[in-house]
């Protein structure tokens, strides 16, 4: 990997994952799709604006899919895209390792 351009996708990925709550959102969606309020509850300390910005970023990067759900009340459900699932499958062992060390 001598060409600097070969590193661009890696730098983009790490820039995305370093955004506040990005990895946490991906890990929250790993087992199943969730509505906005469910993600917020699961993450416990995220304010709505930060979570909205994080979800938009992850959607723009093609890692999260947003679906408007009809009903009373109407809502929005978020799920991992295929790329998001593959990435999160690779992040999960790192999270597990860190969690085990802390515990």
Structure report:
It is a single chain. This protein is α+β, with helices and mostly antiparallel strands and 103 residues long. It is built from five helices and three strands, in the order ααβααββα. The chain has a single domain (4-102), classed as Orthogonal Bundle (Arc Repressor Mutant, subunit A). Helix content is 58%, strand content 14%. A three-stranded antiparallel sheet has the order 1-3-2. 17% of the residues are buried. The mean pLDDT is 91.
Structural topology:
Elements: H1 8-17, H2 22-29, E1 34-35, H3 36-43, H4 48-60, E2 64-69, E3 75-80, H5 82-102
Antiparallel strand pairs: 1-3, 2-3
Properties at a glance:
Arc Repressor Mutant, subunit A, 58% helix, alpha+beta, three-stranded antiparallel sheet, 3 strands, 103 residues
Short structural description:
With about 100 residues, the chain is an alpha+beta fold.
Rounded radius of gyration (Å): 15 Å
On the 0 to 100 scale, the average pLDDT is 91
For the sheet with most strands, the description reads:
3 strands, antiparallel
CATH topology: Arc Repressor Mutant, subunit A
Placed side by side, the strands forming the largest sheet appear as 1-3-2
Distance between the termini: 37 Å
Low-confidence stretches: none
**CATH architecture identity:** Orthogonal Bundle
CATH class categorisation: Mainly Alpha
Strand percentage lies at 5-15%
Tell me the total number of β-strands: 3
């Amino acid at each position: 990997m001598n060409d600097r351009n070969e590193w661009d996708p890696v730098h983009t990925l790490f820039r995305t994952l370093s955004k506040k709550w990005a990895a946490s959102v991906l890990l929250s969606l790993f087992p199943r799709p969730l509505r906005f309020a469910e993600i917020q509850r699961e993450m416990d300390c995220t304010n709505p604006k930060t979570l909205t910005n994080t979800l938009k970023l992850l959607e723009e990067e093609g890692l999260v899919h947003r679906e408007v759900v009809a009903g009373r009340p109407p809502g929005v459900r978020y799920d991992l895209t295929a790329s998001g699932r593959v990435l999160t499958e690779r992040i999960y062992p790192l999270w597990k390792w860190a969690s085990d060390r802390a515990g």
